[in-house]
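Below is our example:
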Amino acid sequence: MSNENTRARVREIVGEMSPSGKRDVAPADLLVEDLGYDSLAVIELSLQIESAFGLSSMSQGTVPDITTVQDVEDLVVQALATPIDAA
């Protein structure tokens, strides 16, 4: 999957799961202020994204502050590009 397709799929998931109602989202949209996400909704979103992209669980301590849809996109693209450490 290309990075652009990955980003589009992330936007689709974020929009589908928005607590403010299903909608199209833009990279600059703020998760809390624009889309209505709270801490529980963010956890549910992360679980859905992990499942959709086959990612292993990332501990919250290693995840930077995520405030926009683009932050989520960047995190997923980076996670997919990083090889899994077999150690």
The mean pLDDT is 88. The longest helix spans residues 3-17. The chain has three helices and no strands.
